[in-house]
Design a protein that fits this description.
mainly alpha; 68% helix; single chain; elongated; 65 residues
């Protein structure tokens, strides 16, 4: 995630990060939401969610969290 990331990118990154920390998948975006945001904003929120989830996993493995 870059420094110039939009609010949507930051939001979905944070939701993915939080889901990994809480061992849940309740915040995964729906297909309709993914398609809508892709069409309107040109952002793949599922990718951002997965990036956040993966970052939390790396942080846990490396004892950052």
């Amino acid at each position: 995630m870059s420094k110039s990331a939009s609010f949507l990118q930051k939001y979905w990154f944070a939701r993915g990060f939080n889901d990994r920390l809480m061992h849940s998948c309740k915040d995964v975006p729906s297909i309709e939401m993914i398609e809508y945001v892709e069409e309107v904003a040109g952002i793949n929120i599922l990718n951002e969610y997965e990036l956040g989830y993966d970052q939390a996993e790396k942080d846990k493995v490396n004892n950052v969290i």
